[in-house]
UniProtKB/TrEMBL annotation, chain B:
Gene3D superfamilies xrefs: MetI-like
Record protein name field: Sugar ABC transporter permease
Transmembrane segments: 29-56, 95-114, 135-165, 185-210, 222-242, 282-303
Pfam family, one: BPD_transp_1
GO cellular component terms, A-Z: plasma membrane
Superkingdom of origin organism: Bacteria
Keywords from the UniProt entry: Cell membrane, Membrane, Transmembrane, Transmembrane helix, Transport
ABC transmembrane type-1 domain ranges (all copies): 89-303
Organism of this sequence: Vallitalea pronyensis
Cited InterPro entries: MetI-like, MetI-like_sf, UgpAE/MalFG_permease
Family listed: Belongs to the binding-protein-dependent transport system permease family.
Main location per the UniProt record: membrane
Location of this chain's protein in the cell: Cell membrane
Coiled coil: none
């Protein structure tokens, strides 16, 4: 009896309901993605006549994936997105760490003014059209429109500055005595000591570039420069399963068209989903550093 | 008198230049490191702020901003008296109100539930799964939404089973807001818990012990110990949220909406996008955008004041 009671204390009705609710939430969260996954490998003819929830793939074919990987749109998109992610994130990290290092200097007279000037831009923005005007005038329709206008995200700059500030002053002093200048201090002391925050920033910026579509849709004219998300929008949302985006004659393979968009979604999501569990703790850390500042 | 003032002013100005000069001598390299950073802020952040004059001019692409003639508040008046004005304000506020009513408490509730889970692996799994949609792009999320609510989509399959008529749910104006808000919660509920869970971990266990001795059950402990413990965090996030009442991310809206449901789906920012970038009405669109930001700023200040009065904690 006593044992039973202690067990009950450990796992009561409250816990039962709680675990049930949380499990349901997980199911609801996962299901849309699982649905797309199942649909993408289902037999298109069977899938089309199917009604209701998918509990497993109906039939099996990877034909849609083959077509997706052969389509010039997806390949171009992938290549461009990789370019934007790698080059863009490098620019982001370079400029943000320069700014964060300068603003972290406690005895820099202009740091205070600059901090106010920079924080001001978090609340006041030019707005969509003036920004479009400036970017368009300066960079035209080039790849740079996706790299420079968002070279620094102010929130990230402040997170980085907060982290740089936590490095003990004495390290700098001794390095300065040894003749190190600011550039050496940043590259030889600050950055190596700030690996975790740099990882967080790289991931924040990287995901931003990976998921980016809006700026691309307003600034880019040339389809050769489109990131994956823009092609994805054509295929998934505008249902433009035509020659221009897929490079295949869908007309003759009409049946496969039904599941091509699911395969395309999976192709765009899988890289993020594969990386994400490993980087989750870094992201969480980033939110925390940001919150401490707030 | 005037002379004294001007001398004083001169002295002060000389001081600033003097300080800057000394500062520059001491930190020469930092000044050089700052050049690209400053260029970024001046060009891409402050540049567009100057571009706001487009809203006060009759912008003609051929003449450029400087060549176009001033029209003052004409475009603001035009917007305020247009038939779109009330519709846009109403939609923006209503969608935000729903986000505030359902979307804001959702992560708090989830964090409270997660906090009660003692089984570490289970907690970790739930967190991993619920954070996940946060990283999926809006294009994909919108694609999935469109597909689920389509005439032959899963949700219609289920509705048809219960005898409802099949129809594309995104063409029914009454359903846009629920779809928008539900999908928003789906995407961000887990991510939103992070900050609350951190606040929760800061609550002293002795408070729970004391509550238990006083005979409080799990619910009472949540209400009397846990919630007050995270109240300051909730207040600050609430203030920040209210400060954004007039902003709705246009990205998801322009991916999801269509002319049939503009009546409930069109918000100020999607209108700015459409007028400006699809119809190239630069001046009008800029004026509407500026109107929106001014109201937003006012809301933030008001919310901060109220928050300070109620709980003593504010943003500044």
């Amino acid at each position: 009896m006593a044992r039973k009671k202690s067990l009950k204390n450990k796992f009561g009705v409250f816990d039962g309901i709680n675990y049930f609710l949380l499990s349901m939430l997980c199911l609801l969260t996962l299901y849309p993605i699982i649905y797309v996954l199942f649909a993408s490998i289902s037999d298109p003819v069977l899938f089309q006549s199917h009604k209701g929830l998918l509990m497993k793939p109906i039939g099996f074919t990877i034909e849609a994936y083959r077509l997706v990987f052969e389509s010039p749109a997806v390949l171009t998109g992938y290549k461009n997105t990789l370019f934007y992610v790698i080059v863009g994130t490098s620019i982001n990290l370079f400029l943000t760490s320069l700014g964060a290092y300068a603003l972290a200097q406690k005895d820099l007279y202009i740091a205070k003014v600059l901090t106010i000037m920079i924080i001001f831009t978090m609340q006041f923005k030019g707005g969509l059209i003036p920004t479009y005007y400036v970017v368009n005038q300066l960079l035209g329709h080039s790849r740079l429109t996706l790299l420079l206008p968002q070279a620094i995200i102010t929130m990230n700059l402040i997170i980085m500055r907060t982290s740089f500030r936590s490095i003990p002053e004495s390290l700098f002093e001794s390095a300065r005595i040894d003749g190190a200048n600011d550039m050496t201090l940043l590259s030889k002391i600050v950055l190596p000591l700030s690996k975790p925050v740099m990882a967080v920033m790289a991931l924040y910026y990287g995901v931003n570039h990976w998921n980016q579509w809006f700026q691309a849709s307003i600034y880019l004219r040339d389809r050769k420069l489109y990131p994956l998300q823009l092609f994805l929008r054509e295929i998934v949302l505008q249902n433009q399963l035509d020659e221009s985006s897929m490079g295949i004659d869908v007309g003759t393979e009409a049946h496969i068209g039904v599941i091509i968009k699911y395969a395309t979604i999976m192709v765009a999501v899988i890289p993020i989903l594969c990386v994400y569990p490993y980087i989750q703790k870094f992201f969480v850390k980033g939110v925390m550093i940001g919150a401490i500042k707030g | 008198m005037e002379q004294v003032v001007s001398i004083k002013r001169k002295k002060k100005r000389r001081n600033i230049f003097y300080m800057l000069k000394e500062d520059y001598k001491k930190h020469k390299l930092i000044y050089f490191m700052l050049i690209p950073v400053l260029l970024y802020y001046i060009i891409f952040q402050y540049g567009p702020m100057l571009g706001i004059v487009i809203g006060f001019k009759d912008y003609r692409p051929g003449l450029g901003i400087f060549g176009s003639k001033w029209v003052g508040f004409e475009y603001f008046q035009h917007f305020l008296s247009s038939r779109y004005f009330w519709r846009l304000v109403k939609n923006t506020l209503t969608i935000n109100f729903y986000l505030l009513l359902f979307g804001f408490p959702a992560p708090i509730i989830l964090a409270l539930l997660l906090n009660e889970v003692k089984h570490k692996a289970f907690k970790k799994t739930v967190q991993t799964i619920t954070y996940m949609p946060h990283f999926i792009s809006l294009v994909v999320v919108s694609g999935i939404i469109v597909d689920l609510v389509a005439t032959d989509g899963v949700i219609n399959d289920i509705l048809a089973f219960f005898g409802f008529q099949r129809q594309n749910l995104l063409t029914i104006s009454g359903l846009f807001r629920p779809i928008f808000v539900t999908s928003d919660i789906w995407q961000h509920i887990g991510w939103g818990t992070i900050i609350y869970l951190a606040a929760l971990s800061g609550i002293s266990p002795s408070l729970y012990e004391a509550a238990k001795i006083d005979g409080a059950n799990r619910f009472k402990q949540i209400i009397h110990v846990t919630l007050p413990g995270i109240a300051p965090t909730i207040t600050i996030l609430l203030i920040m949220r209210i400060g954004k009442m007039m902003l709705v991310g246009w990205e998801k809206i322009i991916l999801l909406y269509n002319p049939v449901i503009y009546e409930t789906a069109d918000v100020i920012s999607s209108f700015v996008y459409r007028k400006g970038l699809l119809e190239f009405d630069f001046s009008y669109s800029t004026a509407v955008g500026l109107f929106n930001s001014v109201i937003n700023f006012g809301l933030l200040i008001a919310a901060n004041k109220i928050g300070k009065k109620i709980s003593g904690s504010g943003l500044w």
